[in-house]
Amino acid sequence: MHPIHIQQAPDTSELGVRFPHTRCVNCGTHQGLAEGVLELRQTTYLLVAGTELLLRFPVVSCERCEATLARRALSLPQRLFLGALSIATVLTFVFLAVSLDLDMPAWLKSNWFAASVIGGGVPAWLWLERHRPEHPQTSYYQPIRLKRLKRSFFGGRIERMVLGFTHADVLREFTALNRPLIDAGVLGAERA
Length: 192
Ligand SMILES: [Zn+2]
What we know:
This protein is of the alpha/beta class.
């Protein structure tokens, strides 16, 4: 069964959060900037149903980093799941081949488990490694992330939001711009 998604996209302008508009939020350059939209999602699963909260913020980025605004970072559990899935796939085929006594090298027959873990794990690891930022970018993925979100049970109003930044100067400028909200405990900013 597919999870049912109830998507909500509240107006973020009423939060009053301001982003630095003088530098790219990923690489920090002051040149060739263009307006972009950063979409941050939070998905909450409740058995088969899930609610997805979509927050949109106007940010600026340079042309090179534009694509990173839309690339959602894979979390550690997602990375581990990807690796496990890749290993399980290879393992299934090798195990089948061994049980059917197919013609295969002797070393594979005696080390089929280790060979599958390496054969499935290495491609997954290489695939994840390929997704590295190009200097001076600070991330291959979204340079600003939603770290934590607390909403009121009734009405769903956002009570507290913590954002993570991959660029130290963007974090510093964001903190300075939003000092009143941060002091009031509504907003938090930290390293991604
Ligand atoms: Zn950039």
